[in-house]
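Thread: magnesium ion complex, take 2
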Amino acid sequence: MIRLNNINKSYVMGSNSLHVLKGIDLQIEQGDFVSIMGSSGSGKSTLLNILGMLDNYDSGTYHLSGNLIQNMSEKKAAQYRNDLVGFIFQSFNLISFKNAMENVALPLYYKGVPRKKRNQIALEYLEKLGLKDWATHMPNEMSGGQKQRVAIARALISQPKIILADEPTGALDSATSYEVMDILKKVNDDGITVIIVTHEHDIAAMTNQIIRLKDGLIHEIIRNGELKQFKKEYTHGLEAAQIPS
Ligand code: ADP
Ligand code: MG
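Output below.
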C-alpha cells in the first residue's frame, strides 16, 4: 500500500539547510499496525507528514495504493487525504467552540453532507467509541482520553484506509494511553492500516512492527521474533488482561 524509495527531505531556512530524511526506503502493507520510533528531532513527524501528504519531499518516490504522490496540487493532495487518510494528533486538535458531535462531523461538512445526516453519522461513531452521552459536550468538558476518542471518531468518519497518529498518547497518563492503543488496535482489526509515532517503548510494543529512525535513515525494523523479544522487554510484565479495554 505504501512504497517509499530513497526519500529525501531538507528544511531550508535562509542560508541554512537541515537534511532530515536521507534516503528512506519503506514498505507498509494494507492492514499493518506500525510504530515509528526515534529520538526527538529524528524526523518522525516529517515522515508521517509526508505519508499523509501534509508535506512534500525533495527527491525519491512515494507510491500510495499504486499512485505516485509527487508534486501534487494542494487540491489533489487534499482529495487524496480526504479519501484515504485519517489524522490523530498528540494535542487532539479539536475545535474548542464546537461540541463533540460537531467535531466528529466536520470531515462530512467539508464533503458537503447536509447537517442532519452528518450529525446522525457522527452520533453513530461517538457511540462506537463509547461517547454517546458526550455528544453535546464541549472539548473543555472532557478528559484527555475522551478528547482523543472524539478525535479518533473524527478520523474514522471518512472511512479512511490509513490512520496516521503523531504521538497519540503523548498527552495521556499510562492507563488512558493503553485504552487509546486498544481502540487503535480494534481499528486495525477492521483492516485499517494504522501508523503511529511514539517514543514510548511500551506503546510501541502494542503494535506489530517498529520502525526505528536514526540519523535520517531507517536504523532498524523490529518484527516477528525480535518483536516478541521487544514486547517481553518493554511491557514490564503487564499482561494484556491488565490493559483496560
Ligand atoms: P521528530 O518528530 O522526530 O521529533 P521532526 O520531524 O519534527 O522530528 O523534525 C526533524 C527536524 O527537522 C528537527 O530538527 C526539526 O527542528 C526540523 N524541522 C521540522 N519541521 C521543520 C520546519 N517546518 N522548518 C524547519 N525545520 C523543521
Ligand atoms: Mg514529532
